[in-house]
Amino acid sequence: MKKFRKLVEVGPIGLQPWAEEELSNYAETIIRFDTLPKDEDELVARIGDADAILVRTLPLVPASVLAKCKDLKYVGMCCSLYSKESANVDISYAEKHGITVYGIRDYGDKGVTEFVVYALIRILHGYDWPLWRKRPKEITGLKIGFVGFGTSGQMTARLLKAMGAEITYYARSRKEDCEREGMHYKALNELLSESEVVITCLNKGVILLHDEEFKVLGNGKIMINTSIGPAAEMPALKNWIMNDKNIFISDTSGGVGEIYQEIKDRKNVLCPDVSAGMTEEAYDLMSKKVMDNIKKMLSD
Length: 300
Known about the structure:
Number of helices: 13
Number of strands: 12
CATH topology of the largest domain: Rossmann fold
């Protein structure tokens, strides 16, 4: 198998030790940086004459950086790649200039599913949390609607359905296999009005909930955002959270958005600000997928 001449980890990338060791099989020279570059000039200097780099969600690698790295042939993203538009690498520029960019998907879903179940049980039963209803409530019979229904959404839905929840979903396309399992598609407004719990599982940068949607959702509901970024317009979400009858849950401040500091200490907000998806197992799977992409690049 071919090797890269020079591979640079341009900042912290989170690979497991076994993967870092394995990298030596695929590059003649490896240079590692464990801090983020302070600006584009430093990033360009770090890349230098490398023909391959590894990068996580930061730093940004725009066209202005790629244009100055004439030897670069491969960018390996050690993070989720949902779309060109949401990526921290200018993939459109890279494609036009002979630079291959590979990202990964679906490595932290199980941790996210566990977080959703943990949060719901804590709130429904009032474990170190004010009771949602007058008495503890089971997941059994709970009407849960998913906005966005990709891998993590479907995984979470299947687990909650096994616990007795009634599952509906809204997505760009119908999921026939899920419908055969007893889950039901609904239009967005219908789902919002009928669900007791709404779980948003949207791609990074997708905002579907605005003032009108929150009016349809109403009060006395639970909303859980498992997306990497916000799923709702900030003023509309803040206004909804200001009603103490509503409960908002997100594992990270990034999932809350720019209003995090304003709402994080409210009694109806649960946000530990720790990524639920980044478990030991997720780091292993992420590392494997990054290495698989490198092998694919070198074997093409």
